[in-house]
Input
Amino acid sequence: MKRAEDNVVEIYSGMAPDAAALQIASMADETAAAVLAKLRVRTASAILNEMEPGRAAHLADTLAGMRRPDDGKTKK
Output
């Protein structure tokens, strides 16, 4: 996540989803996922929607792997 500097995220959040999708799809997996993770959910969704389905699915898998899996313990 450290790879996605705030100013880069701000740039992509202001772009049209189709233009942002072309650029983010060309990034390394970890960088692309870090940028998408820092965007608002609605913005990231619109960008993923504009990508080739296989690339979007791969990045979604990478995003899911960035989150800690639930350890099954209930927090009180």
Observations:
- The helical segments are 6-14, 17-25, 29-38, 41-50, 53-66.
